[in-house]
Structure formats: C-alpha cells, structure tokens
Here is the input.
Amino acid sequence: MNAANKNSIGRKSGASTRAVHGGVPRDRGFHSMTTPIVQSATYTFDNTAKLIEFLDKKVYGGQLDREEYARYGNPSVWAVERRIANLEGADDAIVYPSGMAAVTSLFLTVLRPDTHIIMTDDCYRRTRQFCETTLKKFGVETSVVPMGDREAMEAAIVPKKTRFIFTETPTNPYLRVADLEHLVGLGRRHRAMTLLDTTFATPVNLRPLEFGIDFVMHSATKYFGGHNDVLGGVIAGDAGRIKALKDARGMLGNVIDPHQAFLIERGLKTLALRVRHQNKSALQVARFLEEHPKIERVYYPGLASHPDHALASAQMSGFGGVISFEVAGDIKTTGYFIDRLRIPYIAPSFGGTECLVEQPAYFSYYDLSSEERLALGIKDNLVRFSLGIEDADDIIEDLEAALELAPPL
Ligand SMILES: Cc1ncc(COP(=O)(O)O)c(C=O)c1O
Here is the structure.
C-alpha cells in the first residue's frame, strides 16, 4: 500500500465521515469497494533491481510503499491502522490480535528494567495482573493508586524512574473519568509517558491525543469491531513511537490476521452511528434506572449523580454505552433479576450490536470471596449493562418487567 497516497479526509471532517473514508486511498486495488483481505504470508519482487530499490528504502529510512513478509506488514492491516490513526487524530496506529496483545507489547517494548509505572485501581484486571506479575519479573515495579485520587497519583511518582502513567477512561465497572489535563501535566513534569485505555469512550466520544496524552489504546474487540465477532487491539500515537512498536512487532510476532483486520475495518464504518445511538439510549436507560425503587444506585457519567459528571461533560462528547447499577438485594436477587431479562445476553464484553449483561461478582471475580470482592470495591448486587443497538424503549420495558418479577425486599 502506498502510505503517501492518503486521501483528503482530514481532521475537520466528522467522526462518521472519517470512519468511512479516513486514512485509506479510495482505490485499494482491483477497483474493490472494500479493502481486500490479502491472505499472503510473503510478497514477491519482479527482479533483483526492484528488490534493491525496496531494501534501499528499508535500510536507509525511505517511505515504504509495499510489503515484504507478513510479520512486517500486510495491506489489510495497514488500511485499518491508517483509518484508526485518522479517527484518533494520530500520526499512526498499530493494530494487534487483541487488546491485551496491544498493552503488553507496548510495555514490553518501551519499558526497561529498574523503572516504575503507575496505574489506577479499576484498570482492566488482566492488564493489572500483567503489570504486577510479568513486568515485575523484568524489574518494573507497579504502583496502583485509587482512581480519581490525584494526590495519591502524585505521591506515587518515583522521580527519574516512573516511565508510564496508565489509566482507563471511563473505567470498568464504575465508569470513573480521568482528568486528562492533570494526567498530561503530571506526566510532562516527571518525563513519564501517559497511556490511556479509552475502549469505553471510543474516538467518537473522546480523542485523548488532542489533550496531549502520548498513547491511546483500545480493545478493538469492543466498539471498533462492534459485532462481537472479532478480537483486536490498537495503539495510536506519534509516528516515531508507533514505528518503534511496529519494529518490535516484527520480532515479537504478535501480528493480527488479515481477516480480523478486515472485520475491524468494516466495524469501524458504523462506529459513530452505533456509539451515538448507544450514548443516547444509555442515558435514557440510566435515567429510568435511577428513578426505579428496586435500584439502589446507578453509575453512569451522563447522570448528575455521578462523581465525574462535570469532568465527563467537559471532556467528552458523549457518555458511552455502558451503565453499572446496584439492584436492591443480594447476590441471588441480582442473579434472579438478570435471568428474567429477555433482550440482553448474559456474557462478558461490551460494545457490540447486542445488549450484554453481567454480574461482575460472578464474571470477573468468582474466584474471590464476597469480602475480598468488597475490598476491591465490587459489590455482589452490582450489574454491568452494555447497550447494543436495540431500541431504548424496548430495553426499558424489558428492565421494568424483570425488576417487577425480582423478589420483594
Ligand atoms: C478496558 C479494556 N481494556 C483492554 C481489554 C483487553 O482486550 P481484549 O479482550 O481485546 O484482549 C479489555 C477487555 O475486556 C477491556 O475491557
């Protein structure tokens, strides 16, 4: 693919226009409307002169306009990377076979022994496990600070050793929102890089690079793919840093399959449509739940009752499609209520076309006792509800009926 042959859809265009046209040339070869799935492990050269021309560019830093071997690049993958970079307002992006591959590759590539990172306590559990186990083996220490506690984050800085400050926004499951101005300022003062996992927000609702964040990452499995049919991960940032990650990918070998890349590019085309719909219906559902007598508490940054409502309103153009809430009752009452819902599937994940519902006490923390879960802030009666693209009125009717059937207190 010719990297120089970019199309003209720029940062002034809206998210939907960028999602459909951004970053990728109109002619992708064979006059195909869509990016072809280039199912090839290797790429051919017409003759030795052509090979030398390519190697000159590769070795002496020219702009490459073709592929060589699939571990170093693939046109279907390149296309989705360019499209995501355009959507995030980034120089470039790198796509991985899963969100976990993205975050682990970034840390393994960029961090050195005898360094330190800071992360917030409600980051995705597997990311935290990776930092506290694998990174520790390589001499990288992790400090975990409570989300939203700026003083704790500042106190956790180890001068000259803290290389990364990492958080998610909004977070799972309480949908806390990070203060980006504070993060960027803190990172710059201490020469620490900032990494934001904005899987829950998507670039439709928040573009962190515009605030000065260094790296943005997503589990593309969620809203980008959008149909619960593909895994993927992405990191976007400045050209030099993404190039370093692409060089490392050539060694680590964690390449995404072209068919996965195709599904993510297809999903991206409807990203803004889906997310805007989900923003709207989630707010409607959150308001309904907040008024319901059998619901103890609702966590949704679009509600004035959420601790980060003001911050979210200032930073984001939508509040996202996930709501958490506590059902009046215990672990069993909550399960009973969930079992009576007819629209959502009981499943982990979020960000697809179907509503999904889960009780975090079971899904993510079944190995812990009720007390251990509480210590992590996970209540037994907590429910995470991920909006699909179904109509809000139908979802509300379904919730109302299930709550009606839930045992009285
Ligand atoms: C916020 C967040 N980041 C990262 C991940 C990991 O992504 P993946 O499942 O694509 O590896 C997840 C998965 O649920 C997530 O919710």
Q: What stands out?
A: Residues 98-100, 124, 168, 172, 197, 199, 219, 221, 231, 233 surround pyridoxal-5'-phosphate (CB under 6 Å). Residues 1-5 have pLDDT under 50 and may be disordered.
